[in-house]
Specification:
Length: 237
């Protein structure tokens, strides 16, 4: 698989929906993750990321305009010990709670399905970064309908041990805009991870469609120490 420029994948897709990037910094010292949300409706666009003790949560920018919190208000990022969980929905809490009971990442998602937002049946995408004693590995998961058929659920998990420096994987909910929205297909896309945390954040944010982008979270975790550095960008300020 060829390594793509993340900025080109993003700028070439007006509506990838929600997306997760996980990888390793160019110098090999940092575990890297990014999560962004986009929106086409007033309800979806009326959101911001807010920092929490261990991650972030989505909140309504203008509470008076919030028409339906279902599927749009959740905690995308939570930390469980040496594991950082990143997802596009409330399955973050499911993973956290069940992994805390010694289930694996894959096991913790077996009771979840794609979102109940017919006719799109938006996939649930999830990632986990494990940084411990100078080692690093990560995994990505997608749970989706079978070509838009809600009677059939597909589950795919992709694991990456000792990932290479300067490389990552990108998974997102939709292949592009449409009606219904077409679910992501295939293996997570291989992308280059370049620059400092600020350069990486700026590149991702500036590459997202100006009309549809809503919020972005980026975190670099020092693999040797576990210390994390975070950036949050909100269109609504």
């Amino acid at each position: 698989m060829q390594t793509a420029k993340l900025s080109e994948l993003l700028s070439g897709n007006a509506y990838p929906g929600r997306g997760i990037v996980i990888g390793r910094s160019e110098d090999g010292s940092k575990a890297v993750t990014a999560y962004f949300i986009m929106g086409r409706s007033v309800n979806s666009r009326n959101r911001v990321f807010t920092a929490t003790a261990d991650g972030i949560k989505t909140e309504a920018f203008d509470p008076s305009k919030l028409s339906d919190p279902h599927l749009i208000i959740y905690s995308p990022v939570r930390v469980l010990g040496n594991k950082t969980i990143v997802t596009n929905g409330d399955q973050t809490d499911t993973i956290y709670e069940l992994m805390d009971k010694q289930q694996t990442f894959e096991q913790s998602l077996r009771g979840r399905e794609f979102e109940d937002d017919a006719p799109n049946y938006t996939p649930r995408i999830s990632g986990i970064l494990h940084v411990e004693n100078g080692t690093y590995n990560y995994a990505l998961s997608i749970i989706k309908s079978a070509d838009g058929d809600p009677s059939s659920c597909e589950r795919h998990t992709f694991s990456y041990n000792n990932p290479k420096a300067g490389a990552g994987r990108f998974i997102h909910t939709y292949m592009g805009d449409g009606s219904p929205l077409p679910s992501f297909e295939g293996e997570p896309e291989k992308v280059a991870i370049t620059g400092s945390i600020d350069e990486f954040t700026d590149s991702v944010w500036n590459s997202l469609n100006e009309d549809n982008k809503v919020s972005l979270f980026v975190r670099f975790i020092d693999i040797a120490t576990g210390k994390a550095e975070t950036r949050i960008v909100n269109k609504n300020v």
